[in-house]
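pasting for the record
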Amino acid sequence: MSQDTQSNIEIFLNGLQTIVIMSVGAMMIMAGTLDIGLLIGSNILAARALQGTSKYAKATEFLKQRDQAVGEIINYVKGK
C-alpha cells in the first residue's frame, strides 16, 4: 500500500473515530450520564491510542523495507 493511501486511511479513521465518539458522547450528555470534560478526555485518549497503532503499522512497514534492502545488498555482494 502506498504512503499516500496509508495517510488517507489514517486521516479517515481518525475523523470517523472522532465523529463516533462525539455522537455517542453527545447522546450520553443529553441523558445525563456523561459530562463534557469526560467526553473531551475520552476523545483525546482514543486519538492517542489510534496514533500508537498507526506508528506501529508504519514501523513494521519500514522494517520490511529494511529487510528487503539488506537482502538485496547480500545478493549483490554474493554475486561479485
